[in-house]
Backbone:
């Protein structure tokens, strides 16, 4: 049984077994939550990302997939990097966004992580509308068969928190 919890705040301040990063295919950092995780987590995360690029993901991590590294100096054992889709008004990419949550939890299960903190993937630079992103995130996690005991959505601002809270109440 997985419990879903909501927190408003900075995901880099969370304590969890795994913290999920809304990365890009390069795995080499960026802005938003990605920049914050690398800044606070320190260089060990980027070092492992570079190794992954040099070995398993020469062409980059495909959208919708997930891969784990050390969490460096974060209060977590692992960072799980996933690549959300850029929002499109002409193409339905919902399944790719759902895949980020599914694949991140699959990786978490492989690692034995019991608590996993997620940001609202794709809702920043990648422009996914918050209400729809919240619906996809909550529905996907609810439908998962996983040994993860707590999925914590860490929402940066009140608007994001309210969007996720509304979705959570929907099916409660
Ligand atoms: N803690 C929690 N949530 C955060 C934090 C934080 N410290 N910082 C931002 N958010 P974004 P994306 C929220 O842009 O849309 C990067 O450059 C933010 O308010 O970080 O998936 C990557 O390298 C928003 O709701 O990720 C990629 O190139 C959510 O996190 C690209 O951005 C996601 O915003 C990925 O874009």
Residues:
């Amino acid at each position: 049984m997985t419990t879903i919890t909501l927190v408003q705040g900075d995901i880099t301040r969370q304590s969890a077994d795994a913290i999920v990063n809304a990365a890009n295919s390069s795995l080499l950092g960026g802005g938003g939550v990605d920049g914050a995780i690398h800044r606070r987590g320190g260089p060990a995360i980027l070092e492992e990302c570079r190794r992954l690029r040099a070995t398993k993901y020469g062409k980059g991590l495909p959208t919708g997939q997930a891969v784990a590294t050390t969490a460096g100096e974060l209060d977590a054992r692992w960072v799980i990097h996933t690549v959300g889709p850029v929002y499109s008004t002409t193409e339905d990419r919902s399944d790719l966004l759902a895949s980020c949550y599914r694949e991140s939890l699959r990786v978490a299960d492989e690692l034995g992580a019991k608590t996993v903190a997620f940001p609202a993937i794709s809702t920043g630079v990648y422009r996914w509308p918050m209400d729809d992103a919240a619906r996809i995130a909550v529905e996907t996690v609810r439908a998962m068969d996983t040994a993860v005991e707590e999925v914590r959505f860490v929402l940066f601002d009140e608007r994001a928190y309210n969007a996720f809270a509304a979705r959570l109440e929907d099916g409660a």
Summary: The beta strands are 3-8, 18-23, 66-70, 78-83, 115-118, 150-155. The mean pLDDT is 97. The first strand starts at residue 3 and ends at 8.
